[in-house]
Design goal:
Layout: E1 6-9, H1 12-25, H2 31-42, E2 54-60, E3 63-70, E4 76-78, H3 83-95, E5 102-106, H4 107-121, E6 125-136, E7 149-152, H5 158-172, H6 180-190, E8 193-197, E9 203-209, E10 216-223, H7 233-247, E11 252-258, H8 262-270, E12 273-284
Parallel strand pairs: 4-5, 10-11
Antiparallel strand pairs: 1-2, 2-3, 3-4, 5-12, 6-11, 6-12, 7-8, 8-9, 9-10
Length: 293
Amino acid sequence: MPFDDWYLTNDLTEHLARAGGFLRSRPDRHTVHLTVTENLRARGGRHYGDAPPEFGVLETDGAVRAAFLRTPPHPLVVTALSEEEADGLARRLAAAGRIPGGVNADHDTAAALAAAWERHTGTPSALHKRLRLYRLEEPTVPRPVPPGRARVAGAADRALMAHWYAQFCAEVAEPAGRAPEDWAEDRAERGDLLFWQTPDGTPVSMAGTSPRVAGQIRVVAVYTPAELRGRGYAGAVADEAGRAARSRGADEVLLFTDLANPTSNALYQRIGYRPVSDFAIHLFGDRSRPAPQ
């Protein structure tokens, strides 16, 4: 079996024509790939990063076995691979002169590809983050419910949305990939970000949702400023975001947590989320070194 026989392209339409059915066959495990390609499709393939998107498909006997995408500056997002397939992908990317910077995949695939990249390039890698994917089973209102209510963030909230998004990205140590102002503009236009606001109308927490694709929606960018934490705001707004996703027709409502944060993992289980699978991000080269604080 040719484990390195990947079809590489920068064309989103071509990639989805080849891999779309495969990606939709497991919308939970492929949620990041589906969401990113849907966002790109909605923007006509336009990407906000410093280089064009890259895509790849591995086929065996006419059937898609795996797929990857990369939207710089983010790491490579790849579906599940065997160790042989991970080795083949690392060899293929190295031969093509493509430097992924890191990998985001299920735990075993990420570890196998990071090790293969080191073997083929001599470039060191390091585990950056361990993640857990959750699925909403039965929405459960967090108790006690904090005073206030959820509301949709709109055009008048763009400055605050942008500010909180920048803080969120810095706190989770992930590149924003685009200007926070642009992110806020899109959220305001789509109406897919909720604030939890106190009775006097002051926003104190936020949670967004991804577009619905292949029946799944993911809750994203759950953030409360540090000085407002511990009051139940994140649980309340995340619960409302999950319910909003279901009201938009989602068959599955998903979210990722950082396993280094036991508070958030416990919170989401209290409001009805159950584990699906563990993922990991490994960074390559200079990016694998600890960032200055």
